[in-house]
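Many introductory courses stop at the sequence. We go one step further.
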Amino acid sequence: MGHHTVSTSHSPIGLPIMTEGSGAALHLESTLQDLPLHHFAVSLDRRGADLANVFERHPLLPGATLTDQGQFVGVLSRQQLLEFLIRPHGMSIFLQEPLWVLRSYARAEMLLLSGDTPILVAAQHALRRSPDLRGEPIVVQQQDQYSLLDVHELNIAYWQLRGIETQVRYERMQAQMIQSDKMASLGRLVDGVAHEILDPISFIWGNLSHITNYSQELLSLIAAYEHALPQPPAAVQALQAEIELDYLQQDLPRAVNSVKAGAERLSKLATSLQNFCHIDEVYPKPINLHEALDGILLLLKSRLSSEIHVVRNYGNLPPVQCYPGHLNQVLMNILSNCLDSLLNQAVSLQLDLEFKNRRHSTSAIAPAFKPTIEITTKVCAMVGDRTDMPRWVSICIADNGPGLSPEAQRQLLESFSVKCRTEKETSLAVSYQIITAKHGGKFQVRSRSAQLPFPRPNVIPSNLPSGEHPWPNPAQPEALEPTTGTEFEILLPLA
């Protein structure tokens, strides 16, 4: 500590200033500068008696900021000054000493926070202090100005915000319950509509076999007549020409087959709607995952243009115990996310091709780009399991889109947290909750961009010999993927 001298000046000490904050109602994003702050700076060469007189005249003042030649050096609180004065002979000793002497004996630890620190964060920092310092004021820095915040004001604001937060969560929970009830009602409505569609389809499907047989028999009868009467009467020949008998004989089987294909497609669509809308199941039941995936792809067929290639690498899976409606929702969310990524990239590449002359650059991968969604299913074991026996069903859905940037990957992982889900629920965050909380599984998102290293899938294929790993060096699980895109993996436990 530098050399200090006792001031001989008897000029009056400056009066403390208290700001009322922003004056607006507090909200969850409120910061420390929205709270009442005390501005009171005292030079170190002032006597303790000067500070004590100010504390006596202003009982709400929590302390003073100390300056040395105009520079902030620390804090002396009201509580610390009282501790000095109640010591033996403290009144006669410390009141006549300059403040730098008191500061040398005081506890030097202080909590310094920026003015834009959220109140909820500041309260957490204050609670982490040692018990003997939790009553000390907090130093709030706003540019080059230092103010003091009474910790009691912070506690009052903190509990107000906690009440607001609880109310917001309650309202959001109510909105979610209302939305879930609406979705359940909509699901029952769509289920009823799908059932009403399936009834007439069953009539059509049941009669199509008879229509096929009848048409074949009629065509055989016509062929027999033509063989027996190679020269039919003129009226018959005129009728044959009018109805284009030759074309009718060729087109009638095709028309019947087309009706049959349409009825089959409509039946699959109605069945997929029924399966997708069952979101209010109370108990899990075994389903065929491949049929569920095909049903979701059928529902998304309107968005699956001919340019998007879907690769199905289906393995041999047993029936999986799950909540079919919720799992269908997860698969729908993931596939929709992949479609959005591919469609956005296709539009961007098309714009690059159209305006390449203006941009003075060409995209080398644009002509060779083929939007692809790859779906892989298998039975596997997790790395670290006590046994190498397959205990998980893996559903991996990957696209060859632009992939995730490090910032997007960080934001996506943060959205899976409970706090972020309460603030804003995204489709992927809901999917993560359904898989992890409701099914006891795992939900992983990885970027397969060649520029981004990322951990290899934490699974071992069931067909590998014991002790072997799917990558060359298991001690270095990170590597650069040669392809681009985003990969979603769902791991469901086997019963």
